[in-house]
């Protein structure tokens, strides 16, 4: 990692926030389509400027829900750069400086995790996004990991998506680093999990060379054998669908990993 590169890219990233933030303030997009388009353009420009390459295998669904494994805050930027979409995030993100304001302005569906009926309360936001014919992206693990496996999938949001009749498409994201990054690793320097602190982690990530993100989408939506009332079984079937993509993408068998404490959830 280069400290000089980290500083230079931090300034560059701040410039993107100023440029696109000013557009958000002056234009204040009123429709979900316009908000999703703003986030798409911001994410694509930022990743291109920072030299983070994205490759996609398969097609980003035009509507319905997209579920993916979750490794980092970078996942959101990568997926938004591929296609205009709406994200589901924990309610606390709305209180973050700058990021919280952007989260609200782009129409993110907010969920109060850990509270009874939180998924049901998010249903109105999900339905609004589906009616706007925008894909809704969420991470059923509920938090991030180091990519050594996948956490179990929570069933709340998935059950709400299925209840309104939306299709669910599996996706998988992984990262690679150029060898010239020395001792840096994807698991520690790209993935954001455990007790990692956000700002120092971002600073280290910006100093890396040749970050490559690869996203694989399933060819068809998930066909659930579980009924609408079988929430846990449906969550397990969704887990298997994402795990199948992981095997085809990385050639490795996916293992369940136990839940971990994390400062970040989206």
Outline the secondary-structure elements:
Elements: H1 3-27, H2 32-49, E1 53-57, E2 65-68, H3 74-82, E3 86-90, H4 99-105, E4 109-111, H5 118-121, H6 123-131, E5 136-138, H7 156-163, E6 168-176, H8 186-190, H9 198-206, E7 212-217, H10 231-250
Parallel strand pairs: 1-7, 2-5, 2-6, 3-4, 3-5
Antiparallel strand pairs: 6-7
Question: What does this protein structure show overall?
Answer:
This protein is an alpha/beta fold and 266 residues long. It has a single domain (3-250), classed as Glycerol-3-phosphate (1)-acyltransferase, CATH 3.40.1130. Helices cover 43% and strands 13% of the residues. It contains ten helices and seven strands. The protein has helices spanning 3-27, 32-49, 74-82, 99-105, 118-121, 123-131, 156-163, 186-190, 198-206, 231-250; strands at residues 53-57, 65-68, 86-90, 109-111, 136-138, 168-176, 212-217. It has a seven-stranded mixed beta sheet with strand order 1-7-6-2-5-3-4, sandwiched between helices. The longest helix has 25 residues, at 3-27. It is globular, with a radius of gyration of 18 Å. Residues 260-266 have low confidence and may be disordered.
